[in-house]
Structures
1.
Amino acid sequence: MVVKYIEKLGGLVLYAIGSLGRITLFFISGLTQVFIRPIQFDKILDHTWFIGTKSLFVIVLTGLFTGMVLGLQGFYTLVTFGSEAALGSAVALTLIRELGPVLAAIMITARAGSAMAAEIGVMRISEQIDALKTMQINPIRFVFSPRIVAAMISFPLLTAIFDVVGIFGGYLTGSLLLGINRSIYMDKVITSVQMIDIVGGFLKSFVFAIVVTSVCCYRGYYAHLAGDGGFGAKGVSMATTNSVVQSCIYILIVDYIITYFLV
Amino acid sequence: MISPLIQFKDITKSFNDVQVLKGINLSIHKGEITAVIGMSGTGKSVLLKHIIGLVHQDSGKLLINGKSMDSRPKKGGHLFSSQLSYMFQENALFDFLNVYDNIALPLTETSKNPNSIVIKQKVKTRMQELGLGPIDHKFPSQLSGGMRKRVALARALVTDPKVVLFDEPTTGLDPVRKKKVHKMILEYQQQFGFTAVIVSHDIPGIFDIAQHIAMLDEGRIIFEGTKDEILDSHNKTVNAFIRGEERCVSYEIGLEQPKG
């Protein structure tokens, strides 16, 4: 009985490692195609608009409320130590170092990552990917390469917007609602944030862009191999769900690893 | 005797534990329309996908102009592959591209100058030849089934292929449109001179356009010949199939329970 469970666990671990390896190879083959001429500027622009511009609303909204909640929670925690003046530092550093990159990546995964997996999955089951092969077009170059570049551009920019809006949200609750001096709040924001914090945040968002796009596109691309009886429409739905869940898990794991090396 | 353009030699193919092709021997000659007929689920599309390289055989040889396809270079230089076109059963048009971009795709994606006038002219010419003039800005979802077939055919022909593979081109069409599609294939085959391989179970419609007919049954070619030869065939399975008789409906194609 115990051996059976250990075998099952081992099988799962091997599957996870194999899956990670396949996603990495998928990413590498997509990345190499980015530099092969002609560069796909039009497609990169299209996907940047889809991943970036169309995610703007949800990023602003999430950033604003995250900052506002941080302002509230931070104020009532700091006030017990008589250090509510440090609210600006707390909000800005929490957002720039951690919450900004992570929450922005999760929101983009939910909005754009799921759409990528579903769109590529439908292309797979309707034989559009096979059609590309018959036309001597590299399918990975066609469906994945422009998206990875677009994500590398969009993720850091959206994270920056998330951070700025979040800091503004903290200002709304901290200064306008709870009465912390505006100049002190902004001064603490400016003086406490170092360049290393900003670079670290951008580095995280850049890596998340690679992780999310690779996982979502890979899952969609191999939607027909989803297994567990998932073929056709069910295969696409499973690929979409798996892509979002796995992306979120990988975001948290990668976040821990990067933070470990940054602190 | 003229050597065949494409030759299957003892090709076998299995998916998981199911052997779909059990030693296929078939010759396809240059400039001809070859029809591969047979019941649903007998491996016709799998056979067709071997030619374009979407599926690879487990054993046997696929010869193109007498040369084995196994020796094809893996990267680039797919000299023969670039002369092939494939028309999918469900057309496989890109729903996010309009008609013009769908047809132009094989050229724009493989050219260093995707916006060149030569490509535009070529696409426009093909569209005019196939009667697709005023619909270049429409999307596939806005077109009728027949129109979509024509767009798919235009895309298949835009690269001036030497061989066009048709996977059940009349599936889902009414009898009138089926006839039109067959007529269209014959007309363009005569106009452009390509070799056509058509997978179909549209009997007897396909006999009117095919010069060479092969019947696939349970993973094997059980008949090869002309229209007259198939109509005179004494093979019981062939006869039953072309007359649509019940005896050829087996549990293997999912319409009957296995006995015993």
Note: The first helix of chain B runs from residue 44 to 52.
2.
Amino acid sequence: MSGARAIATVWRRYFAVYEKNFWFGIVTTFVEPLLYLVSFGVGVGGLVGALTTEGISLTYRQFVFAGIVGQTMLFQGFFEAAYGGFVRMYYQKVFQAIAVTPVTMSEVLWGELLWDASKATFASTAVVLIGVLAGDFRPFGALIALPFVFAGSLLFAAMGLLTAARSATIDEISYPQFLLIFPMFLFCGVFFPLDQMPTILQGVAWLLPLTPAISVLRSLTLGFPLKPLAVIAVLLWTAILVKTARRAMRDRLVK
Amino acid sequence: MNHPLVVEALVKDYRVKGQAAFRAVADISFSVAEGECFGLLGPNGAGKSTSMQCITGFYPPTSGRVTILGHDVHADPRQARNALGVCHQEDTLDTDFTVFDQLVRHASFFGIGEKEAGRKATELLERFDLTAKAGVLVEALSGGMRRRLQVARALIADPKLLVLDEPTTGLDPEARRTLWSIITGFRQTGGAVLLSTHYMDEAERLCDRIAIIHRGRILDCAPPPELICRHIGVSEIDEEIRPGVRWKRPPNLEDVYLKLTGLSLADDESEEAGEEAGDAS
């Protein structure tokens, strides 16, 4: 068994749970982004109509649909890895049980992260698809956005796994949830263009990973000018967080 | 011919913040032969579990070497653990799956396909008297059944070495006996067993050889009758168990332990404190 195959068997364990609880999976993966799409895209979109930002005019629905792709990556990736990962590590001891078989701890943690990222990618891809079908996204750009959606999903999954590794109890996950995830959700450009905020807050927003992620998504799906620095920022955040999360979880379990 | 398990000069230190490292396992060596049951006997905190974690390749040792059928479990975990079955001290059953499905899932980590795994799972559930529970979730099982399932899961890939960390702790007498007969059955097929326990009767009954472990060191290692003969000598112990009540009984391993360490098996406070410090780091 090669490393890649070992990781695949771990991923398959997660997918088997997902498959088994099919409707649970469907509801928890797809309902939330759909509710945001309808509420903000149709509801608020009807109220606001059109807007102009960075010199580009578009409907609010177009604007917010792209933001919701990012928000879906954030929530689905983070929560699956943070709460799901904590339960698997602490209560179910899934990592401990698998890491004494021919599969190693390193492979177990890759499987965990890739699964969390996959689940977030399923949900985000559904949003992208709806954006295309609604005629709001550029189809080719949307297609190119998909690998990027996976990278972003991995970023926030790693943030979740890092949280799980560093939380002594499941309740402690609330700290990053309220102090980092919710602020990103509200202030990193999901619902309104960043230029609505004071310059200093814009600067802070750019220091958080959701801002560059959404910036790239808007470039690909809506034709905003692509900021190469934003792409680099997302990839760098992903690399650093994946490395840190894996090390933190390993250090917690393996003495 | 490679032994199912060879442990050579195993040392394990835990890092403790702001203090010198705590040595949980201090240079232990032993090997387990085919069909043999080898016991690590000692109180909580003696270093049994830490040794087990190093032997299964979960914790990297500070120094020393562990080989399973000639494969170094740390350098080549994939090969080494192909022949290893582990039953952890704590419950590590996967509560997301039914009894049957979790055997199949566990087999996949050994590269065993679903069809073959299903056949093996059916056979194991039959052998462990769990067939009636095949379709239920783990949560619906009693403590004894859960432990039985955990051993069944450890056997799914036909291991040559079975590692059992305090397998009967918390079980009622009947469940303990069932588990003992399962262990005997495994040995009859040539399987080697490494067992840790703090139960005297269990160690005496199951183990061909016992290592008495204390503060991370093996104090002595021999078949149980030999240990008793060597350290106690007499064939009968006469003690006052209650004021005015005397009791004559044959000597047992607990007497050996007491003699070797000056401590009873129930309490070794200093070591437990040490291990907790290790866990907290």
Note: The longest helix of chain B spans residues 173-188.
